[in-house]
Amino acid sequence: MSMQDVQAIIIRAVMDREYRELFFRDRARALEDYDLATIETMWLQRLDRNEFDAFESEVRSSLAQGGGPTPVAQRV
Q1: Which of these, 31, 58, 55, 59, lies nearest to 44 by C-alpha position?
Q2: Among 54, 37, 44, which residue's Cα sits nearest to residue 9?
Q3: Whole-number Å distance between alpha carbons of 33 and 51
Q4: Which pTM does this prediction carry?
Q5: Which letter does DSSP use for residue 70 in this model?
Q6: What is the pLDDT of residues 30-64, one digit of tens each?
């Protein structure tokens, strides 16, 4: 399913600085290994670098402060 690919791309771009640089430098190359619908490719092509960097910073800050999903062991 291509929505899973979109999620994988976003996560990879957040976590992998080298991939993020490729994504914003050459999106066609960064997306070539994924099975995306045309609308998903168009959406990813329109992502703004500054907005993405702000999002990435928020995600990293949240993770550093212990945010995110609760580990399974703590839910039991």
Answers
A1: 31
A2: 44
A3: 24
A4: 0.74
A5: P
A6: 999 998 999 999 999 999 999 999 888 888 888 78
